[in-house]
Amino acid sequence: MCPNMRAFFLVFCVAGTREIKQVELTGADIFVRCLAEQGVEHLFGYPGGAVLPIYDALYQQDKVQHVLVRHEQAATHAADGYARSTGKPGVVLVTSGPGATNAVTGIATAYMDSIPLVVFTGQVPTALIGNDAFQEVDSVGITRPCVKHNFLVKDVKDLATTIKKAFYVATTGRPGPVVVDIPKDVSVARAEYHYPKRITMRSYNPVSKGHPRQIKKAVDLMLTAKRPIIYTGGGVILSNASRALTELTRLLEFPITNTLMGLGAYPATDRQFLGMLGMHGTYEANMGMHNCDVLIAIGARFDDRVTGNVEKFCPTAKIIHVDIDPASISKNVKVDVPIVGPVDQVLKEMIKVFKESEAKPDAAALKAWWKQIEEWRGMDCLKYDRDSERIKPQHVLETLYKVTKGDAFVTSDVGQHQMWAAQFYKFDKPNRWINSGGLGTMGFGLPAAMGVQFAHPGEQVACVTGEGSIQMCIQELSTCRQYGLPLKIINLNNGYLGMVRQWQQFFYDGRYAMSYMESLPDFVKLAEAYGHVGMQITRPEDVEPALKKAFKMKDKLVFMDFLTDPAENVYPMIPAGAGQNEMILV
Amino acid sequence: MRHIISILMENEAGALSRVAGLFSARGYNIESLTVAPTEDESLSRMTLVTNGTDEVIEQITKQLNKLIDVVKLMDMHEGPHIEREMMLIKVRAMGPAREEVKRLSDIFRGRIIDVTETMFTIEVTGTSSKLDAFVEAIAEADIIEVVRSGVTGIARGEKALRV
Ligand SMILES: Cc1cc2nc3c(=O)[nH]c(=O)nc-3n(C[C@H](O)[C@H](O)[C@H](O)COP(=O)(O)OP(=O)(O)OC[C@H]3O[C@@H](n4cnc5c(N)ncnc54)[C@H](O)[C@@H]3O)c2cc1C
Ligand SMILES: Cc1ncc(C[n+]2csc(CCOP(=O)(O)OP(=O)(O)O)c2C)c(N)n1
Ligand SMILES: [Mg+2]
After folding, report:
1. A343-399 pLDDT per residue, tens
2. Strands, DSSP E only, in B2-150?
3. Per-residue confidence (pLDDT) for residue A7, from 0 to 100
4. Minimal Cα distance from A152: which residue of B?
5. Ligand 1 touching residue A281 (CB < 6 A)
6. Fewest beta carbons less than 10 Å away: which of A320, A508, A523, B52?
């Protein structure tokens, strides 16, 4: 234990009294103590003037490992990947001004997908706030629209309680990022240290149970269904409810589809799973939605990429919706049976009510429904040209699935490659598919993969990316080198901002404005320059051997540059404004 | 429809901007907004007048409730309630118009609180529509300045918005 840490635990008795008084600590030391007590193992960050006292305190302890990224955006994405893959909050430390503004993209990314982060930003000393001081920005103001909550700590006496509140708010209810802005003088000032074990806030009381009457009503409605479908989202994963979801779905024998954020919550290799729904979802999932009579929505938020045109959405369905956030319910689509509560608790209660009930689902109707679904499934909507001379991105992902035995953590960037990864990598477990859905942040994949690898040192972590996206946080290859992160980067290099090109082809008569990527770097040499292994793969027959070889290099980061068919598009596709039954097929 | 929403919130710096920010970010209307501390100085009470369809109002109340600083809120239209707004209005009135202004002010139970040879400053309290009606009625006279406090409201009877 280093000297400073020992000081932390020093208490002394005031002579003559039995009162025990604690040593006063600096704000910076309090910060470090709180994090250690909170069980934070990794802190992703980047230093600067306003946080120098905190870095000094970090230097003198060994409980919390600080990970030095190369750009603050990456710190937030790494913490985010850490959170998504563990269910624990991701923690970030950046300096004031540009440090804080650089972090904003990552904060907004986490906000849109309800990911628990606690982001500490340094601030200029309290006396200078509002003076346009050096490296001053109003971090609380700038982040307000993209955080669950934020705090400015003005007095060192409030620091520990505020940190406790930040973790509490970030991780409970509908999770989300919380920013804590700490002025430099607060880090230097001293106060007695006390980290509360528990905290209550009169203005914040997340729901812990769904209403029993609503749950009963929902189960009754499910039992009358003739063409039911279960539509689940990220909330199931956030609520750690995969097991309950799987049990209920199997009991009911209903078909199930997951949103992009919900993949892995139900085993993708199971027969009852119809694949992803929505804009690039499968034919069977979208047709199942459009034609259902009872829709059971669980931890999903009826995003416009899922519903398409809401006027045409599920025209014949009665809708049940389970969500912890009342504001998610009846926001985009009016529902019939709302249930506000945590998915896990509500599903367990549903299972209980269902088991106690005399009634059973309508077997004959279900049989007919499944027959219809199998017909849709027979369309094989994800088919692609397997005999092509060029590498098909779908082929790379199918092979990745095979080589990793479906057991890797897969992060992705944003674009066509993201959709193919979602369609072709079959996730049987939750917390393994890590991508930016709500904000769609290019640059997310690599730093997120770093966070995942820190949380799961021995596991296979793949980052599926494109030549456009990877260049948005490419500098993190240096971080990977420093910490020896053996990521496998799957660069589906089509020479285009492919998702943009696809829209231009479909909706702008092929006017490819700024969607062609010129002057690409030699990714192999680039990987090597950072001290990693680079590979370029140009022929379909080399895909599998290359992937095998890469995954055998257990302690090396391998950057695999796959030159894929530049003309390939993502199918099926629901054009914006169309109904779920109006898909463009291959 | 027009709704009066009363909000009890933590009396913290920035609480007001969270509410204002929510309305601008989500494109909701604010007709008026007033805020002041309550008898419990850790709480402020805000009264907000907005309008929208039932669906929009439902989202507004849900989104407001979601703000961490919001302790409790009430849509006044859920039950009988009293609405009050105060207006100070300065009018130029000379000659026979002076009598007319005084008469109108009486009708609206206004109080003349400042007088010069050519001006009256009148205080009127009531619902917003009563204040609108007064402004309309006095339009003949020369209105120099109008200040309105924004609407406040309180539920009738036993019902109360408190922690
Ligand atoms: C290029 C691109 C294409 C896309 N195409 C598609 C597509 O084809 N299909 C698709 O599905 N998406 C697609 N998306 C993603 C889309 O934009 C949305 O991010 C996604 O659909 C939202 O998923 P979700 O409904 O599961 O909600 P999430 O954002 O995961 O929200 C989770 C919901 O669960 C609730 N919740 C959280 N915790 C709990 C809990 N403990 N208990 C109960 N409820 C809880 C939350 O309140 C929230 O309502 C695409 C994104 C990109 C970038
Ligand atoms: C930061 C950011 N800027 C712009 C976009 C818009 N956008 C979405 S997909 C895409 C193209 C991505 O290209 P690439 O990474 O090569 O992936 P591909 O679609 O080719 O697989 C763009 C520009 C975005 N999502 N994020
Ligand atoms: Mg590309």
Report:
1. 999 999 999 999 999 999 999 999 999 999 999 999 999 999 999 999 999 999 999
2. 2-10, 32-37, 43-51, 70-75, 81-92, 111-115, 119-126, 142-148
3. 43
4. B13
5. yes
6. A508
* Pair B10, B43: CB distance under 8 Å: yes
| Residue nearest (by alpha carbon) to ligand 1 atom 45 | A235
Taking CA–CA distances from A178, the nearest residue in chain B reads B68
Q: Taking all residues of chain B, what is their mean pLDDT, rounded to a whole number?
A: 95
A148 lines ligand 1 (CB under 6 A): no
Mutation site, B17, B59, B65, B68, interface A, largest A CB count within 10 A: B68
DSSP-derived 3-state class of residue A255: coil
Q: Whose CA is closest to A246, among A210, A174, A194, A298?
A: A298
What is the A109 CA–ligand 2 centroid distance (Å)?
A: 15
CB-count exposure of residue B136 (10 Å: 0-12, 13-18, 19+): exposed
Could you read off the pLDDT of A137-178 as tens digits, one per residue? 999 999 999 999 999 999 999 999 999 999 999 999 999 999
For residue B21, which residues of chain A lie inside 8 Å, CB to CB? Answer: 144-145
Query: Which residues in chain B are contacts of A141 at CB distance < 8 A?
Result: 17
* Residue linked to tokens 């997120």: A448
pLDDT at A495: 98
Residues of A involved in catalysis: 72, 134-135, 184, 499
Distance from CA of A124 to the nearest CA of B (A): 18
- At A16-59, the pLDDT tens digits run 444 556 689 999 999 999 999 999 999 999 999 999 999 999 99
**Using omega within 30 degrees of 0 as the cis cutoff, is the peptide bond preceding A572 cis?**
yes
**Tens digit of each residue's pLDDT (9 = 90 or more) over A548-583:** 999 999 999 999 999 999 999 999 999 988 999 999
What atom in ligand 2 is closest to the CA of residue A418? 21
Closest residue in A to B60 (Cα–Cα): A327
Question: Which residues on A lie below 8 Å from B68 (Cβ)?
Answer: 148-149, 169, 201, 203-204
Burial of A256 (0-12, 13-18, 19+ CB in 10 A): buried
Q: Do A148 and B68 touch (CB under 8 A)?
A: yes
The interface predicted TM-score (ipTM) is: 0.94
CB within 8 Å: A145 and B59 = no
A94-149 per-position pLDDT tens digit: 999 999 999 999 999 999 999 999 999 999 999 999 999 999 999 999 999 999 99
Band of the pLDDT at B139, cuts 50, 70, 90?
Answer: confident
Give which of B124, B22, B115, B129 is closest to B66, Cα–Cα: B22
3-state secondary structure of B87: strand
